[in-house]
């Protein structure tokens, strides 16, 4: 007989799937029909969104970003999801510019709906693309938990979720966008991409070397996340960045006293 604790854990996991699935279905319908957009508060920032709860309003990286972001600065929100970070920055610093990258087409539409609800279209530039180490097109796996959509099928099926479908989505190198003058260089770079953070950083190497934005990096407990996190940490340190861990998330600032390796 299995230990009672193991049985209880299995029952909990089995029950979690229908609850989470129902939540994401309700949120999708709320966005589609624009039914109810409750006010969210993050420190001094206030905005409205069609999420039913303020899921990421307590994220330590968001609070660190808000504490550092000033007027007229540019924030790259890579893995923007439905826009909690982008909306909070736009609300807190109306003169700041946010470029929000979200490759999942359905979630990107939810992001656009939230931006329109707050009339932040002049502050948030929404890009329906992923960021990576090469520009092109990649397979993307949509998850039954919208938040877990990923370029890796295993990541999209974490937490008892399932792969909903596969599609091909555009991916860009951040260096290409900045180098072409399509967007201004970032003062802040937030990366939350379900285990593909190193790809984002390596595609922004020139930007990191020249402009030294503060990097807010979210490691993930998903397939190959340890590989991704180790590679990302080594890469940032090689560029002269110092990593500070805040509740398992990283705030990375360039150390002017350290030479690049």
From TrEMBL:
GO terms for molecular function: methyltransferase activity. GO terms for biological process: methylation. Residues 77-243 form the Methyltransferase FkbM domain. Keywords: Methyltransferase, Transferase. The keyword Magnesium does not apply. SUPFAM superfamilies: S-adenosyl-L-methionine-dependent methyltransferases (SSF53335). The keyword Repressor does not apply. PANTHER family: METHYLTRANSFERASE, FKBM FAMILY PROTEIN, SLL1173 PROTEIN. This is Methyltransferase, FkbM family. It comes from Halogranum amylolyticum. The lineage of its organism: Archaea, Methanobacteriati, Methanobacteriota, Stenosarchaea group, Halobacteria.
């Amino acid at each position: 007989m299995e230990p009672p604790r193991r049985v209880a854990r299995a029952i909990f996991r089995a029950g979690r799937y229908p609850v989470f699935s129902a939540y994401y279905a309700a949120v999708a319908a709320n966005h589609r029909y624009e039914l109810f957009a409750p006010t969210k508060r993050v420190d001094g920032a206030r905005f409205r969104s069609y999420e039913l709860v303020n899921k990421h309003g307590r994220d330590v990286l968001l609070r660190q970003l808000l504490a550092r972001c000033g007027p007229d600065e540019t924030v790259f929100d890579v893995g923007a999801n439905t826009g909690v970070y982008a909306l909070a920055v736009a609300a807190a610093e109306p003169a700041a510019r946010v470029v929000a990258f979200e490759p999942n087409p359905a979630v990107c539409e939810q992001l656009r709906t939230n931006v329109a609800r707050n009339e932040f279209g002049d502050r948030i530039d929404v890009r329906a693309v992923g960021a990576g180490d090469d520009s092109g097109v990649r397979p993307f796996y949509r998850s039954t938990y919208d938040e877990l959509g990923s370029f890796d099928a295993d990541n999209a099926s974490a937490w008892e979720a399932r792969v909903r479908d596969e599609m091909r989505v555009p991916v860009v190198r951040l260096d290409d966008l900045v180098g072409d003058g399509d967007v201004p260089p970032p003062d802040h770079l937030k990366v939350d991409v379900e285990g593909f953070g190193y790809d984002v950083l390596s595609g922004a190497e020139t930007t990191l070397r020249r402009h030294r934005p503060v990097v807010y990096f979210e490691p993930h407990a998903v397939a190959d996340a340890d590989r991704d996190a180790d590679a990302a940490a080594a890469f940032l340190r090689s560029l002269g960045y110092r990593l500070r861990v805040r509740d398992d998330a990283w705030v990375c600032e360039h150390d002017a006293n350290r030479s690049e390796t």
